[in-house]
Amino acid sequence: MTPAKLAFVASRSEEAQQARNHLVKAHGDCTPEDADIIVSLGGDGFMLHTLHRYGELGRPVYGMKLGTVGFLMNQYRPESLTERLAAAHPATLHPLKMSAISESGSRAEALAYNEVSLLRQTKQTAKIRISLNGSVRLAELVADGVMVSTPAGSTAYNLSAHGPILPLDSATLALTPISPFRPRRWRGAILRAATEVTFEVLEPEKRPVSATADSTEVRDVVEVRIREDSDTSVTLLFDPEHNLEERILNEQFAV
């Protein structure tokens, strides 16, 4: 059986760069375009960078943790990499597609594998109207912000904002407020993945809001539409003992 052609990409940290050099000497290297598998070395932030940069190639991505956060990564062990790749479990992720309109009238689009978040830009709380599939569900949310999260991203910023953890295959999204003031007791909602969420910023001149899709930020937004991009997908590979579904399940029993 012909060994898989590997492309090693690494964050800028010295540790990750040294690991890349070691692995390239052991396994060779090719471009992501010519690879069978892309091996990403870093933390979750670099994994998201890898997915955004190379996701359109359709290559599965196997991450190894060489950063501060590694929920989307496998443990870094340079030995037996070929065998680990052969035994890895795939997890297919669909990103969110954000379409944002700024106060100037310009439009921007971006993908998010974790979440799309809206945040106040000044000391003033944000006021946001929330609609689902064109129907207003919350006329006015007064809060620091609000987000829509994928299942894979539900254990990240969403969890820190007290949002629900979603099973990977649940075909759902988490709609979670960030430090809500009114309605004070509103905890958010779990939505079907096919739901289109629209955020309208109220009083945008007085209460400016930014929108961020993973690491892509748009300032001074007045309207943001979010939906799952079912036509786009990426495949992550995980060691059997650390597959993503098991990690998400374990997070729900963490004490």
Give an overview in words.
This protein has helices spanning 14-27, 44-54, 81-87, 157-160, 244-251; strands at 6-10, 37-42, 61-65, 89-93, 96-102, 107-112, 115-120, 126-132, 135-149, 172-182, 189-192, 197-202, 209-213, 216-218, 221-228, 234-238. 17% of the residues lie in helices and 41% in strands. The chain is elongated and about 60 Å long. The N and C termini lie far apart (45 Å). Strands 5, 6, 7, 8, 9, 10, 11, 12, 13, 14 and 15 form an 11-stranded antiparallel beta sheet that branches. The chain has a 5-stranded mixed beta sheet with strand order 1-2-3-16-4, with helices on both faces. The protein has 255 residues and is α+β, with helices and mostly antiparallel strands. The chain folds into 2 domains: 6-93 and 233-251, Rossmann fold (3-Layer(aba) Sandwich), CATH 3.40.50; 96-228, Sandwich (Tumour Suppressor Smad4), CATH 2.60.200.30. It contains 5 helices and 16 strands. The mean pLDDT is 94.
